[in-house]
Specification:
This protein has about 290 residues and is an alpha+beta fold. The protein has a single domain, classed as Aminopeptidase. The chain is about 20% helix and about 20% strand. The chain contains 8 helices and 10 strands. Strands 1, 2, 3, 4, 5, 6, 7, 8, 9 and 10 form a 10-stranded mixed β-sheet that branches. β9 and β10 form a beta hairpin. The N and C termini lie close together (about 5 Å). The relative contact order is 0.14. The C terminus is likely disordered.
């Protein structure tokens, strides 16, 4: 399986796993000596570096998140999408060429340069406990025992995926980029429910199979969670997410967050999927296995 599948304006990056060992979280995405020196076939794909550059512009520069906290433990197991725009090479004025209302149907300009303008990630199950009300965290990858915590929406057991790091740089925030990213990620999850199951090694899967209670936390059936900044709840509501009032709110890097949920109908995807259906089988065991 290729770890990066690039179209003209959207790059899709499969979970990178051990490749992210080459990433130095204390340095900018444009300054990664270990990755630059690595075998190109084993290096971090440009699409992920571009996603990090967008996150740096928004979370680090704009919102004040410490650079070393921006990359977290969930990044290595997540699916990422990066959106690009074309700008005239001899003109510094940003110009979206082919992203309008979520469709790649815009006009093209010769002598242009592509720049990354937005990103989102999808984190497979299982997940750590939901943040405690009024607690404080560095990032949304909260550590803890996955057996704990339930809410008025979530029973604490059902598997869910988590969308996050929805990020668009300022000049493009009214160009439909968030819509494109959210709908692209949700469509992929809806149509590939088994592909977004966790990709662990055989020993860990065997351990999961021996624990029928924990097993329910990895058999994903459509539940989606977002840790949303309070100020952008309205964005997620446009796509059917509802705030879970029982989760109250919590602090991540000085920014107040709330939990929002949506349930996807994945029945068609589960029927059509050619990936494992009942035994936690081989395609998911290796992060680079072919579907």
């Amino acid at each position: 399986m290729s770890v990066s599948t690039r179209s003209d304006f959207v790059d899709f990056i499969y979970p990178l796993w051990e490749r992210l060992e080459l990433y130095d979280s204390t340095k900018l995405s444009s300054d990664q000596p270990k990755n630059d020196a690595a075998d190109p076939t084993k290096a971090i794909p440009q699409g992920f570096l571009d996603a990090m550059s967008v996150r740096e512009q928004v979370y680090v520069e704009e919102q004040g998140v410490p650079l070393e906290n921006e990359l977290d433990d969930d990044d290595k197991r997540s699916f990422h999408w990066t959106v690009y725009a074309s700008v005239p090479s001899k003109n510094s004025t940003p110009l979206v060429q082919a992203v309008e209302n979520g469709n790649q149907n815009g006009r093209r300009v010769s002598s242009s340069t592509k720049i990354p303008i937005g990103t989102i990630r999808l984190v497979p199950p299982p997940h750590a406990p939901h943040p405690s009300p009024n607690s404080h965290h560095k990032t949304d990858a909260v550590n803890g025992d996955v057996r704990k915590h339930s809410t008025s929406v979530h029973d604490g057991k059902e598997a869910y995926i988590k969308l996050g790091r929805l990020t668009v740089i300022p000049p493009y925030r009214k160009a439909g980029i968030s819509k494109l990213l959210i709908e692209t990620a949700l469509a992929y999850a809806r149509n590939h429910p088994y592909e977004v199951m966790p990709g662990w090694d055989p020993a860990k899967f065997e351990s999961l199979k021996q624990d029928s209670d924990l097993m329910s936390r990895v058999d994903w059936k459509g539940l989606v969670l977002v840790h949303a900044q309070v100020g952008v709840q309205k964005v997620w509501r446009r796509y059917g997410f509802e705030t879970d009032e029982s989760m109250v709110s919590w602090d991540e890097e000085g920014i107040e967050h709330v939990g929002m949920w949506k349930k996807l109908d994945v029945s068609a995807g589960r029927r059509q999927s050619k990936i494992w259906l009942g035994g936690m089988g081989s395609p998911l065991l290796s992060p680079l296995a072919s579907p």
